Structure prediction request, 172 residues.
Amino acid sequence: MSAGAEPARDGAGRSSRGGASSGGRPPATGATSPDGAPWYVDGVRFECTACGKCCVNHGDGFEYVFSTRAERKAIAEHLGISLRAFEARYCEKVAGQWSFGSEGDACIFLEDGKCSIYALRPKQCRTFPFWPELMDSRDTWDRDVASFCPGADQGTLHDFAEIRKRLAEHGG
Ligand code: SF4
Ligand code: SF4
Prediction:
């Protein structure tokens, strides 16, 4: 793995196969307030503690780290290798998409609990935990984010507009 980097903070995260699915789970409740607004209409507190837990596969929903070709190319250039060499060495094909490989249960780029490619981490990581499948209800947030992420419901208040902007990056 490469060296040198900033902590895995606001924006780390491994996802389920396909990157945007929580299929198979029971329907979530608490998706909207009584007036029909999303549960996060008043914003959500989140401040990453750089614990690196979301860079480790801890069960359903955190197995893969997907990226675009442009993101992989930028990381490959940073590492001084070709895109093809990067994909062969650091990635694995999952359902037709490249996911970063793992070392044990952790993302291959997690070093000493920190992301070694922090500045170039893919969108999936940059936008965690504001993913459509994690924000669909308060129950989902509690179950799939707050249950393990110490930054959930703490610190900075992210307002509705910011959350919508991050969700839009995922097409949410
Ligand atoms: S690329 Fe970095 S931020 Fe993303 S899962 Fe891997 S170690 Fe974590
Ligand atoms: S689990 Fe939460 S607090 Fe820990 S690195 Fe990931 S986003 Fe940050």
Q: What stands out?
A: Residues 47 and 151 are 5 Å apart (CA to CA). Residues 1-11, 16-29 have pLDDT under 50 and may be disordered. The first helix runs from residue 69 to 79. Residues 8-9, 12, 48-54, 128, 149-151 surround iron/sulfur cluster (ligand 2) (CB under 6 Å).
